[in-house]
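Suppose a colleague, Dr. K., hands you the sequence of a protein chain of 353 amino acids and asks what its three-dimensional shape might be. Before reaching for any lab equipment, you can write down a predicted structure in C-alpha cell form. Begin with the sequence itself:
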Amino acid sequence: MSADAALGDIAAQLGGELIGDAALRIDRVGPLEGATPSTLSFLSNPRYQSQLAASNAACVIVAPGLLEVAVARGAAIVTPDPYLYFARLTQWWAARSRPAVMPGVHASAVVDATAVVAASATIGALVVVEAGARIGEGAVIGAHCVIGSGASVGAGTRLAPRVTLGAGCVIGERGIVHSGVVIGADGFGFAPTEGRWEKIEQLGGVRIGNDVEIGANTCIDRGALDDTVIEDGVKLDNLIQIGHNVRIGAHTAMAGCVGVAGSAVIGAHCTVGGGAIVLGHLSLVDHVHISAASVVMRSIRQAGQYSGVFPIDDNASWEKNAATLRQLHTLRDRIRTLEHAATSEQKTGTNQP
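The predicted structure, expressed as C-alpha cells, is then:
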C-alpha cells in the first residue's frame, strides 16, 4: 500500500477536528524541525510552540489551547491529547506501510509433528518449533526463532528474527518481541558447597501476558520453582535483565539496561528509568517511579517518585565529596554527642537556683 494519505482520511480514521484542506496529502510523519510541506507533525508541549511558526509541516497535531497559533501557519488537527494522537497515528501509519506477511510455514522451518500452528500464523525461514508448542492465530515468528517444547505464542503476537522462547514458556496475545530476546533461560541459582557452586535446576517457566513489548537483547529468566511473571501491558526496553521468579505488574514500563534481581515484586503502573537496579526479594507497590541509574536497596511501600543518584561533578570535587560521605557515620556520632552535651547543659542550667 502507498505510504501516503490525505489529511481527511487520517482524521476519519483517528478522529480529531481537521482545520484545513482535507485533500492535502501526507507522505511522512515527523518532527517540526526539518518537516517538509508533506509532513504531518505534532506539538504536545507548549514550551516548543516557537518551533511551530517556523516549521514547514503541512499539518500539525495540537491541543485546543494552541489552535490559533497552529491555524495561523496552516492546517491543523485539534485533539485533547496530541501525544496520544501521535502514538495512534504511528500505529496506523506503520500498519499501512508494513509489507504484508503471508500466512504459512517456510520450507526451511522445522516444525515438530506434535506442535499446533494456526493456519493464519506465519513461520519464517529456519525457525524451529519444538514438540507440543502452540502458535496462535495471526502470530508471526521471524526467521531463526526457536519455540521450545510446550511453549505458547498467543494470537497476533510478533516475534522478530532470532528470538528464543524457552520450553514451557508462554507469551499472550498481541505481543511484540524484538530480535535477540531470550525468554526462559535458566535463572542464576547455585548452592555453595566446599568452595564450589552446585547448580540449582530451574524448574519454573515464564508467563507473559497480553500486549507486552520486549526490546532487543532483553533476557527474562525462568523461575526456580514457580514461574517468572510479566503481566498485561508491560513495556520493556532493550538490554534489560529480569531475574528468576520476578513478578512485574500490569502496564509497568522499564527503560534500557534496567536490572531486576531474583524474586523482586514490582507493582502495576510503575516506571523504572534506564540503568536502574532493583535488588532481589524486594517489593515495590503500584505507581512507584524510579529515576534512571538508581539502586533500589529496600522495599518501597508508598507510591511516588524515588531517586538514588549521586550528582555528577568534576572528578576532583567528586573525590572530595566521596571522602566526606565515607565519614558521615563518624560525623553523625559527633553531632549526637554534641547534641547530648548541649541538652545536658540546658538541663543543668535550668535546675540551678
